[in-house]
Amino acid sequence: MAVGVILLGLLYLFAPSLGLDPTSYEYFTSDGISSGLSADQPYFTLNGKNITIYSGAMHYFRVPRAYWKDRLQKLRAAGLNTVETYIAWNLHEPENGVFDFGEGGSEMEDFLHLEELLTTAKEEDLFVILRSGPYICAEYNFGGFPSWLLREERMGFRTTEETYMKYVTRYFNTLLPILAKYQFTKGGPIIAFQVENEYGNQEYQTFLPQKEYLEELHQLFVQNSIVELLVTSDSPLSHQDKGTLPGVFLQTANLGASPEKQFEKLLELQPNRPLMVMEFWIGWFDFWGNDHATRDANTMKGIYERILTYPASVNIYMFHGGTNFGFTNGASLGNTLFDNSGFEPITTSYDYDSPLTESGDYTDKYFNIRELLIQHSPVKTYTPDVPNLNPKIAYPVISIEKEILLSNLIQYDAPYVIESENVVAMEKLDINGNSGQSYGYIVYRKENVDLAANTVLKIGGHICDTAVVSVNGVRVSPSLETKNDLDGFGFWRLADSTLVLTTDEKKGATVDILVENWGRINGGKITQYNQTFKGLWQGDVYLNDNRVSGWKIIPLEFKKSWTNNLEAWSSKTSSLGPALYYASLEISDEPSDTYIDMRSWTKGLVVVNGIPLGKYAKIGPQQALYLPAPFLKKGYNSIIVFEHYKSADQLSFTTGQIWKTA
Ligand SMILES: *[C@@H]1O[C@H](CO)[C@@H](O)[C@H](O)[C@H]1NC(C)=O
Ligand SMILES: *[C@@H]1O[C@H](CO)[C@@H](O)[C@H](O)[C@H]1NC(C)=O
């Protein structure tokens, strides 16, 4: 370490003779630090020197921790001087009052070492912009809100409502002191914080963005010794300054096209202040059932150049999208208010058609950006060489060895069985320190029921979000083969949906309704947020119009400790889900990145060495799951597939994402 520092120092001393430009930190801080990022004039200054912020977005919670350094090196080598990330409240406070900033014991703990991220960014010569919410959108589960907030009687998300602000205050009073140490003027990398996110978008008939709410957030930053620049972001053309506090926060713009129009509006709203695009959309996210969204690299290059030459500072959204590992994807609700009928889940891949692919490979956009920045950057700092890529391997095909049918899973491996008179939402279960169930599946089981021939099951309201129904352990509800099946029974679109359970009489039967949470909404109208429960909760369940009561409820959260210790395995005899299927991947050398090709499977979840990798669905567009090397080990690796409908006999691997076109 010390040797490295001395060597770096020597390199810098001799830099002119070696023809090396200074690093960003050398350029901006070699004479000591007296001031942070200033927006008090028509251009930004950092420590008194002019700066144009060339930033790229990368969300630490979408990239394995072992790869943060690699991705940040690639970001710096593109000529960027800043990395931007959101902070996900739902990960850092997974249970009410229980925080995790790495090693906190939560399921996602390895992603949560925020301080390591900040230290690594500085080591890689990058400044940092933090968008700390509390609401972040980000196409992330519940826009970053913890689902246990839904347990409160009254919850006025993104308003001054007391219960909401009580929890925001406790979270910020925990988070911000950690971040305060890493501010630029304290010798750290953080040059700016964004307050809230696209709050101006909340302007609609029944709701006006509350300035008082923004002021309360502002006070929390001040009280926690945050001294760096505070900004907000949305479209100034669409929402003027409704989502900001003029004079308190610097307003920035989010856009995918027409930068000049947005800049003119910004200058009108904030004369004599610098311009910044906080989100320059160079790609887009995907919904299950749609085509993969892409944006042309040359079009992007043209607009990026117009932003650079205006001139304005700009954050590329996303520079590296990454993956919605496990259960972390968000969803959209369309225009429907509360009933879930317009639900649209975001895919596991958050590739975003970014300059760096989901697995960190370069695309044309990467080289376009690098070329433009080398050409336009007014300050010449040292741009490292483009790093080598990590190898990708398509491991040999492996066979499914073992299975656990859902009925056996419930009988032998149920983590809890909760008796309940009525069906309830997963968030309302008194588990996880009374924080409820946030993620995964919930089984509603009715035992010992006499079913007459042609008994009709009716589920009141909408299913949140998918349901697979079995009678005596045999699935009787339809599969998800094409996206048109989403209009039928077992999915969220139908209200009061019905299914014939049996054509002949069955006495003393067991009916299982397996309900999947396919991701909570990440945006939309805030009046929708406090209604986004998962499971069956919108109405009662009926058999031939008789209300059913006396349920057993079994949450399936796929926590590591549970998945790694399942006991009911037996050799594979069927391919009819719902069932868990086990295969073992033997790796003799150091593991490499790979993708699991799920095209011959139907719909479900893959878990590797206890880590929920993500959801798959053959309706696409995504057909493969990125499996990063850090999730694998030398020797035997356990791969478990939870298939809802129909399994394959094998798992095969590939070296890149496969996009299906509709
Ligand atoms: C900083 O930028 C402004 C606007 O382009 C320019 O007028 C000023 O001279 C620059 N200052 C320095 C020290 O380069
Ligand atoms: C849900 O949020 C809306 C809008 O903030 C509010 O009017 C309503 O009272 C909230 N409902 C509950 C149960 O908190």
From TrEMBL:
PROSITE patterns named among the record's database cross-references: GLYCOSYL_HYDROL_F35 (PS01182)
Organism, as annotated: Anoplophora glabripennis
Any GO BP: carbohydrate metabolic process
Span of domain Glycoside hydrolase 35 catalytic: 44-373
Encoding gene per record: GLBL3
Keyword list, A-Z: Glycosidase, Hydrolase, Signal
Source superkingdom: Eukaryota
Signal peptide per UniProt: 1-19
Source species taxonomy: Eukaryota, Metazoa, Ecdysozoa, Arthropoda, Hexapoda
InterPro entries on file: B-gal_1-like (IPR026283), BetaGal1-like_ABD1 (IPR048912), BetaGal_gal-bd (IPR048913), Galactose-bd-like_sf (IPR008979), GH (IPR017853), Gly_Hdrlase_35_cat (IPR031330), Glyco_hydro_35_CS (IPR019801), Glycoside_Hdrlase_35 (IPR001944)
EC category: hydrolase
Protein name in the entry: Beta-galactosidase
